[in-house]
């Protein structure tokens, strides 16, 4: 019996053997089956069990498996002993790896999703018990391997051909390892994949599943409830209501709150239930634009001026409750399709001389920079939280950016006329806009991300007029 709690790895990646002290006295014994704090400190995943199962094995020789499911398990015995064995059925190099160990009440094993699980009772009346982190579903079939598979060669203490071994007909008919389709890993899902940012994300995550409003209307609660979230490890939400001025109108206000407030709250609930990482995007509009030396930091209190910023702030608060979340706060996004830079480029080539506001200061964010930062935070396993992301460089007003676009388009920058937000808004129904949109990039930099200078990104963007950001 173990004197203290210990956790050991095995040849199957992620399959962990946990040995726990069993406290014995005159009455019997006691042990902690699952102790989240102590066990996660030793490396057991915080796997969030939602169902506990017991299986009673009347006689020595009862043999069950080899079954893999798309959820993690934590297995042990309450009485008796089993010889337990596992076969890795996940896609990848470790497919087919095996491990076996005897389990008594002092031993538990963490079995990761996709690893086939089997055991043989070594004593009459053995009670095998396991915790799982998803509810069993009858509408799906899962990989199983024959207990007697000649490749896996599990050393069962009681021969499967002996009269002592009790095996169900179903388990006897399971296929050989060579006939099993490996279980695919949980995937990445991009929501809002048809939007400006969504299209860039689709290019950055070429293996991701893409979803737009036609495939899944995120405001449809029934559709959200039916969606197979368990198939995904990471959900990247690029869907939003981004029509800042429309959001001030009665119809737009509802749409903005639905998509920017309620949808992230629903996704937060989904993320916690399915233990997935939720990536979400925020905006400088959650701030009132008061000048902050060095730019707005991630932990600044919200102070949105308009409905768009208010609805986005609500979404941020909801997403921030998710255990594994990244909120990438960005400003002045430039991607494919109509946007400020393209409009200025067009006006420059058409010989026009636009009036552009000179009192809103910020930095451009090209969508490939934001996608790259998304991939980076996920790849390095950055601490969950909010990260500001824009292209680095000197803060500029919209008028200064327009002048630079004119210059790069062969026009005289002086052809861009400065105006004020007040003058520009006269006679127009515009949402209030923050004047100081500059975001501090220190936190992102501390994760090892090197940004692409905004002026360099602008030159590259303008030189690829039809393809957008390369
Ligand atoms: N644009 C900016 O300057 C800016 C600045 C700061 C932060 N941001 C943030 O950056 C993120 C991306 O913005 P963006 O400019 O890429 O947005 P976008 O181009 O307006 O795209 C929004 C996407 O949301 C999808 N969508 C709308 N309603 C939906 C629904 N009911 N169900 C599912 N999808 C739905 C749209 O899909 P359909 O086309 O299929 O309807 C569209 O693809 C947002 O979070 C935004 O708030 C943007």
From TrEMBL:
It is an enzyme of class 1 (oxidoreductase). InterPro entries: dTDP_dehydrorham_reduct, NAD(P)-bd_dom_sf, RmlC-like, RmlC-like_jellyroll, RmlC_Cupin_sf, RmlD-like-bd. The keyword Oxidoreductase applies. Its EC number is 1.1.1.133. Catalyzes the reduction of dTDP-6-deoxy-L-lyxo-4-hexulose to yield dTDP-L-rhamnose. This is dTDP-4-dehydrorhamnose reductase. Keywords: NADP, Oxidoreductase. Belongs to the dTDP-4-dehydrorhamnose 3,5-epimerase family. Belongs to the dTDP-4-dehydrorhamnose reductase family. Pfam families: dTDP_sugar_isom, RmlD_sub_bind. PANTHER family: DTDP-4-DEHYDRORHAMNOSE REDUCTASE, METHIONINE ADENOSYLTRANSFERASE 2 SUBUNIT BETA. The keyword Ligase does not apply. Residues 187-449 form the RmlD-like substrate binding domain. Pathway: Carbohydrate biosynthesis; dTDP-L-rhamnose biosynthesis.
């Amino acid at each position: 019996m173990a004197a203290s709690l210990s956790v050991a790895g095995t040849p199957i990646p992620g399959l962990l053997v946990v040995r726990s002290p069993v406290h014995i006295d005159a009455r019997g014994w006691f042990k902690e089956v699952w102790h989240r704090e102590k066990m996660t400190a030793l490396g057991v995943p915080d796997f969030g069990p939602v169902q506990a199962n017991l299986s009673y094995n009347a006689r020595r020789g009862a043999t069950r498996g080899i079954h893999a499911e798309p959820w993690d398990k934590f297995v042990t015995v309450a009485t008796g002993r089993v010889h337990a064995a596992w076969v890795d059925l996940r896609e990848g190099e470790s497919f087919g790896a095996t491990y076996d160990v005897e389990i008594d009440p002092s031993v538990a094993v963490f079995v990761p999703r996709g690893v086939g699980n089997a055991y043989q009772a070594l004593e009459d009346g053995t009670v095998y018990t396991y915790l799982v982190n998803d509810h069993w579903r009858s509408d799906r079939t899962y990989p199983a391997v024959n207990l007697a598979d000649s490749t896996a060669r599990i050393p069962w203490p009681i021969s499967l051909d002996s009269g002592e071994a009790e095996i169900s007909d179903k388990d006897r008919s399971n296929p050989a390892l060579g006939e099993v389709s490996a279980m695919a890993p949980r995937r990445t899902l991009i929501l809002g994949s048809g939007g400006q940012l969504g299209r860039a994300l689709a290019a950055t995550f070429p293996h991701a599943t893409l979803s737009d409003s036609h495939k899944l209307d995120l405001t449809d609660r029934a559709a959200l409830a039916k969606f197979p979230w368990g198939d995904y490890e990471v959900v990247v939400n690029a869907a939003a209501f981004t029509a800042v001025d429309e959001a001030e109108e009665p119809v737009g206000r509802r749409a903005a709150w639905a998509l920017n407030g309620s949808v992230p709250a629903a996704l937060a609930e989904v993320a916690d239930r399915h233990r997935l990482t939720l990536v979400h995007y925020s905006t400088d509009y959650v701030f009132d634009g008061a000048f902050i030396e060095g730019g707005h930091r991630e932990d600044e209190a919200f102070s949105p001026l308009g409905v768009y910023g208010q609805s986005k702030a609500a979404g941020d608060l909801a997403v921030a409750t998710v255990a594994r979340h990244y909120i990438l706060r960005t400003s002045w996004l430039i991607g494919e399709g109509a946007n400020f830079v393209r409009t200025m480029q067009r006006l420059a080539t058409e010989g026009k001389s636009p009036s552009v506001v000179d009192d809103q200061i910020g930095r451009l964010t090209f969508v490939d920079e934001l996608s790259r930062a998304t991939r980076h935070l996920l790849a390095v396993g950055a601490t969950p939280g909010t990260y500001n992301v824009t292209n680095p460089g000197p803060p500029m007003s919209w008028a200064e950016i327009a002048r630079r676009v004119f210059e790069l388009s062969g026009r005289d920058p002086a052809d861009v006329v400065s105006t004020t937000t007040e003058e520009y808004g006269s006679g127009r129904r515009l949402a209030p806009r923050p004047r100081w949109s500059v975001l501090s990039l220190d936190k992102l930099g501390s994760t090892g991300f090197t940004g692409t200078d905004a002026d360099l990104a602008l030159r590259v963007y303008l030189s690829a007029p039809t393809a957008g950001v390369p």
